[in-house]
Design a protein that fits this description.
By secondary structure, the chain is α+β, with helices and mostly antiparallel strands. About 50% of the residues lie in helices and about 10% in strands. Among the domains are: about 120 residues, no CATH class; about 90 residues, Ankyrin repeat-containing domain (Serine Threonine Protein Phosphatase 5, Tetratricopeptide repeat, Alpha Horseshoe). Helix 6 runs parallel beside helix 9. It starts with a helix and ends with a helix.
Length: about 300
């Protein structure tokens, strides 16, 4: 399916820009009619119909996390942007920065001016970490004040959390040695939790250099830390560090959690450590029943092999 062909169902002219902002959990889009002569852009109520018509096309690999811009016959992409802006303010900013287009309404023009001022966030350490600008992380990290080390990018995270999520060991070590807190939440998860999900190297660094905080996190979270980790050596390190195999929450046993993540390496590890395959969750279902209900084919195959 071609985006231009879909849009032609509703709009026959060529002067438009269609913007899709995709995050890990959501999509938002805006369809704008362009007045080239006056360098202006106007949001259109056709947005909803176009978004619905594109359907699976929008959720395909063509639209990646970030900003995808369709301008008649062309596709552009912006990976990193100021996530502190509201979505429609962000879209107005993109139209201005890329195409020198201004909103028609005066109120939107005023908001655009404020959004331009907020672009100074891009010169901070936390933004460098968010955008994985490794050269700038090192430059700014060496001279960072304590407040900069813990600064949160609204709705996104902290410098240390971003370094963990991007598997940037050098940057993580620099910031941690400068005093960034490895146990303080970076949005929903701590840097330690993020390391287990994204960076085995950082997990080992934490074990060796921030052992007290590491063990405290393992005792608190147990094998939930390894739900998205598919390295048997890391899972073994969890066990060695005292992680609770079954899980502290009887309603959500770890075996079922690993099923939900379709982590067959983790499933196999738990079962070989003696995890009872017949334990049931809050829905009174075994891990196999959970896998069947949620359609986790690899988990079904593995669990059935242990039952036979």
């Amino acid at each position: 399916m071609n985006v231009d062909d879909v849009i032609k169902q509703y709009y026959l002219k060529e002067n438009y820009v269609y913007i899709i902002v995709k995050t890990k959990n959501s999509y938002t889009s805006g369809f704008y009619l362009i007045d080239i002569e006056n360098s202006k852009a106007e949001y259109s109520n056709l947005t909803i119909q176009i978004f619905e018509s594109l359907g699976k096309y929008i959720s395909s690999s063509l639209v990646k996390n970030g900003i995808t811009i369709f301008k008649y016959g062309t596709i552009d992409y912006i990976q990193y942007y100021n996530p502190e802006l509201f979505i429609h303010d962000l879209m107005d900013l993109v139209l201005f920065q890329k195409y020198s287009l201004m909103p028609i309404e005066q109120e939107r023009k005023n908001i655009l001016q404020e959004s331009i001022k907020k672009e100074k966030i891009k010169e901070t350490l936390v933004y460098a970490c968010y955008s994985d600008n490794r050269k700038k992380i090192i430059e700014k990290g060496k001279i960072a004040k304590s407040s900069e080390l813990e600064k949160k990018l609204q709705y996104s995270g902290t410098p240390l959390g971003f370094c963990a999520a991007h598997n940037f060991l050098e940057g993580f070590k620099l910031l941690a040695n400068k005093g960034a807190n490895v146990s303080k939440k970076s949005l929903a998860k701590t840097p330690i939790e993020l390391a287990f999900e994204y960076s085995d190297e950082i997990v080992y660094y934490l074990y060796e250099n921030h052992h007290e905080e590491f063990i405290e996190s393992v005792n608190k979270k147990g094998f939930k830390l390894g739900i998205n980790n598919r390295n048997e050596n890391i899972l073994q390190l969890l066990l060695k560090s005292g992680a609770d195999l079954i899980g502290k929450d009887p309603y959500f046993p770890n075996l079922h959690n690993f099923v939900d993540a379709e982590n067959t390496i983790g499933l196999k590890f738990l079962l070989e450590q003696g995890f009872d395959i017949n334990i049931k969750n809050m829905h009174k279902e075994t891990a196999l029943e959970r896998a069947i209900r949620t359609g986790k084919k690899q988990s079904i195959e593995l669990l059935e092999s242990y039952i036979k």
